[in-house]
Amino acid sequence: MPTPPRHVVHLIYRFTTGGLENVVVQLINNLPHGEFRHTVVAITDADHQFVQRIERKDVNVICLNKPPGQPFALYPKTYRLLRRLKPDVVHTCNLAALEFMPMAALAGVPLRVHAEHGMDMGEINTKGSRYLTLRKIYKPFVHEFIAVSKPLQGYLQRKLGVAPAHVHLIPNGVDTHMFRPPHAQDPAPPGFPFERDRHWVIGTVGRQVHIKNPLMLVDAFIDLAQSGMDGTERLRLAMVGDGPLLGEIAKRVRAANLEDRAWLPGVRGDVADILRSLDCFVLPSLSEGTSCTLQEAMATGLRIVVTDVGGNAELLEHGACGSLVPSGNVEALKLQLLQQLRGSGHDQAAAALNSARQRHGLSVVMQQYRELFLGRPRSVSAAAARHEP
Questions:
Q1: Phi-psi region for residue 206, left (φ > 0), alpha (ψ -120 to 50) or beta?
Q2: What is the DSSP letter of 361?
Q3: What is the pLDDT averaged over residues 232-260?
């Protein structure tokens, strides 16, 4: 009699456009269908358009519709849901979902896996003491931890005290078939207002929130565009994504009279096509784990400028695959963008493309998750060790 597929419940805060949410979609679409089936549980809500990225037709997306405030009132509901679903594995991502691990333990879920994808603004602003205490409270309810970058791996081991055998370094993966360098015959994305060769487009993709610090890029772009320096008349800006800072971004662009040189389309489903229309990718974040969009930019063969935070330096091999600037330093970002505009970065872009293909392909990442979800953590540790930078 064939073994039934293992049921994995992915428990996350919100199922909408974002890096960790994209990883969940990758897992659902790419783990062997005969070995795994999946349910997504969103603590708050889910974006219908993002849900369409799931290719399987047998996946339920359940929203708990958490109201603002503490999640305690949802604990009984979550316990009953997990008792009904009877998963073999619960997979949580980041602290907001980790808080529900006691309910998974109480419901008798055999394997409980928690992944850390990065810190939020609250942890950065408070230096994380309260959040570390919360993680220590929930730590005993987790069997295996995943870190998407070496800094997060170190945090889990040194700060949280997780035994090294139970911390698995599994960077996010990138689909190198979807995200590829441009071809001459590639059409421009619908609505894209700039022209290849005539304009030089810097851009970013992500949530327009404080942790991503998009205003650093906006300010650098405005300063360069108004500087009058040679070549800057070609400069254009594309910022894809939505969030609470989108209005402020538009306000600053409008105040600088640069509306015809900036494109703010909001959330898009054709990110791969848009990346192929850029000349330089910028990630100005205050904190990152392993950035999915940075990996996608690498696989597209773009010039890259990012802030030196979290796992960015590790991904870019400490400058071999792109330029690193201090977080929050607009002047340093302007200097690097000007250098890229004037022709530097070709070798870094080629190195980034090669690194994405060799080290961050989906097949390597999916195999590591497969072994872990099958309950073979030793195999995962060995695989992770073989593929560490």
A1: left
A2: B
A3: 97
SS3 3: coil
In the numeric block, which tokens belong to residue 16?
């909408």
Question: What is the rounded radius of gyration, in angstroms, for the C-alpha atoms of the chain?
Answer: 21
Quick count: other Cβ atoms within 10 Å of Cβ 332? 19
Report in angstroms the alpha-carbon separations of 372 from 6, 90, 120, 291. 12, 12, 26, 22
Show contacts of 218-221: CB within 8 Å, 24+ apart: 218/249, 218/252, 218/253, 219/252, 219/330, 220/330, 220/333, 220/334, 220/337, 221/258, 221/262, 221/337
With H, G, I as helix, E, B as strand and everything else as coil, classify residue 320. coil
Claim: this prediction has a pTM higher than 0.90: no
Strand positions, DSSP E, the chain: 6-12, 36-42, 60-63, 89-93, 111-116, 144-147, 167-169, 200-205, 235-240, 262-266, 280-283, 303-307, 323-325
2-12 exposure pattern, b = at least 16 Cβ within 10 A, e = fewer = eeebbbbbbbb
DSSP code at position 2: P
Maximum pairwise Cα distance, the chain: 73
Q: How many CA atoms lie within 13 A of 12 on its CB side?
A: 24
CB 286 within 8 A of CB 297: no
pLDDT in tens, 22-80: 999 999 999 999 999 999 999 999 999 899 999 999 999 999 999 988 888 999 999 99
Question: In the numeric block, which tokens belong to residue 374?
Answer: 């099958």
Report the C-alpha gap between 168 and 164 in whole angstroms. 8
From first CA to last CA, the distance across the chain in angstroms is 42
Place of tokens 């872990």: 372
Element (H, E) at 50: helix 48-51
CA atoms within 13 A on the CB side of 97: 26
* pLDDT for position 290: 78
Q: For residue 209, what is the DSSP state?
A: S
Chain centre distance of CA 75? 27
Question: DSSP string of 102-124?
Answer: HHHHHTT-SEEEEEE----HHHH
pLDDT tens digits, 148-180 = 988 899 999 999 999 999 999 998 889 999 999
